[in-house]
From TrEMBL:
Protein name in UniProt: Uncharacterized protein
Entry membrane topology: Multi-pass membrane protein
Gene Ontology biological-process entries: regulation of photosynthesis, light reaction
CC terms in the record's Gene Ontology section: membrane
Cellular location(s): Membrane
Keywords (A to Z) from UniProt: Ion transport, Membrane, Transmembrane, Transmembrane helix, Transport
UniProt-listed InterPro entries: VCCN1/2, YneE/VCCN1/2-like
Biased composition annotated in UniProt, kind: Basic and acidic residues: 384-395
GO MF annotation list: voltage-gated chloride channel activity
Organism taxonomic ancestry: Eukaryota, Viridiplantae, Streptophyta, Embryophyta, Tracheophyta
Chief location category: membrane
């Protein structure tokens, strides 16, 4: 995400006191540490040229799919929704099939099963006496089981996607509330408000806006944390965050300590601290969704069922379809593996969400609220001055200006 521009009202930061150092003993092995090799020779999978040639197509499809996953997704506008429900959407989707990330990822398995079907058809044609055929009854009995596996797989994946979306909506709503309460920390509310408090409030708003950005970089790989945060944090604060092992929690610490240094009212500080619990909850939900997938036994069962189904499909259909088993296998594999692939993609919800656009929307809306707040404050101050001057003019024109004068007239 491009670094948001500096705002005239959100710029410098209030230095925070250095907390006492705390040592936490390491009880677990570092997951990034190299694992000692076991006894035995080192096996290199790339030493076999045949395996390298066979894996070239899956490697290419995976590389294309991973590049497309890192693409930034925009938020929908009214024009996007009109195009989304257009009657021409089916033709548009068909013409864009070759650029689809899902379809490109299906090239290796669908090609392999189609080749197996062609091989079985060729064998049965050349050796009809030893043709590979079987009854279709087992397929009729197991087809509902395969359908249920695919339905449950996609339903479980969408539930994870929806949970991640709701977690991010709660984080963004809490950040907007916190920023609004911080921006209302104005001279009108505090008679002794000075430039130091103004700088501290600006820093607090920046910390609040930086939290969703840091959380986004924390849960999405290949994120450039420095470029995303350098427009919101000063150089010293940014270095502290980058040195931290858990950057979102580091920014929460900045927010928490800023609340105490800015001398908020006790009731208001309590409400603002309660909003931080939404940040902690968002971190926990996101980390659980990233670290805990759908049970691997279920994913493996679905994959093995699909593979065995399509490996034996040409044998089952040969008596009735002959060479039509090749296109039939292609269509079946493309359809069923496409459903399974969609479930795998949305199982990790955050690359599917427009997180960059949501963070930018929060920043822009906060800046807009701040500018409107300043404009309304100036307008109300000018209106108050106009009313005072009108009252003074009325008093100069002979109207009673005090209760004592009114009593004398009576």
């Amino acid at each position: 995400m491009a670094a948001p521009p500096h705002s005239p009202s959100i710029h410098r930061h209030l230095p925070l006191p250095k907390p006492p150092a705390t040592h936490v003993a390491r009880c677990f092995r570092d997951p990034k540490a190299p694992i000692p090799s076991s006894a035995g020779g080192d096996t290199n999978s790339n030493s076999n040229p045949l395996m390298s040639m066979l894996s070239s197509v899956p490697d290419w499809a995976d590389a294309v799919s991973e590049r497309r996953i890192r693409d930034r997704r925009p938020l929908y506008t009214h024009a996007d929704w009109r195009e989304h429900r257009s009657s021409r959407r089916h033709i548009r989707h068909l013409l864009s099939s070759l650029s689809s990330r899902v379809i490109l990822s299906l090239v290796p398995p669908v090609s392999a099963f189609t080749a197996v079907a062609a091989a079985v058809a060729t064998y049965n044609t050349l050796l009809p006496a030893y043709a590979l055929t079987a009854s279709s009854l087992p397929y009729q009995l197991t087809a509902p089981a395969l359908a249920l596996l695919l339905v449950f797989r996609t339903e479980a994946s969408y539930a994870r996607f929806d949970e991640g979306r709701k977690a991010w909506m709660r984080v963004l709503a809490a950040a907007a509330d916190l920023a609004g309460m911080a921006m209302r920390h104005t001279p009108a509310a505090q008679p002794h408000y000075n430039q130091i408090h103004h700088t501290g409030t600006s820093a607090l708003v920046n910390y609040i806006l930086a939290f969703p950005v840091a959380l986004k970089c924390h849960i999405i790989s290949h994120s450039d944390v420095r470029s995303d945060l350098q427009g919101l944090l000063s150089g010293d604060d940014l270095n502290v965050v980058l040195r931290s092992k858990h950057r979102p929690r580091c920014i929460i610490e900045f927010i928490s300590q800023s609340l105490y240094m800015l001398d908020f009212e006790e009731s208001k500080r309590t409400i603002m601290e309660s909003k931080l619990s939404c940040f902690h909850e968002g971190i926990n939900v996101c980390e659980q969704l990233i670290g805990i997938p759908i049970p691997l036994s279920y994913t493996r069962l679905t994959s093995r069922f699909l593979v065995l189904w399509h490996l034996t499909l040409p044998v089952i259909l040969w008596d009735e379809c002959k060479w039509i088993v090749v296109p039939a296998t292609f269509i079946s594999a493309a359809s069923l593996f496409c459903i399974e692939e969609v479930g795998v993609l949305i199982e990790e919800p955050f690359p599917m969400l427009a997180l960059d656009a949501l963070c930018k929307q929060l920043h822009d809306s906060t800046q807009d609220v701040l500018s409107v707040q300043n404009l309304v404050q100036k307008r109300l101050s000018a209106k108050t001055k106009d009313q005072d001057s009108s009252i003074r003019r009325c008093s100069d024109n002979g109207w009673p200006s005090s209760k004592s004068e009114q009593a004398k007239i009576d």
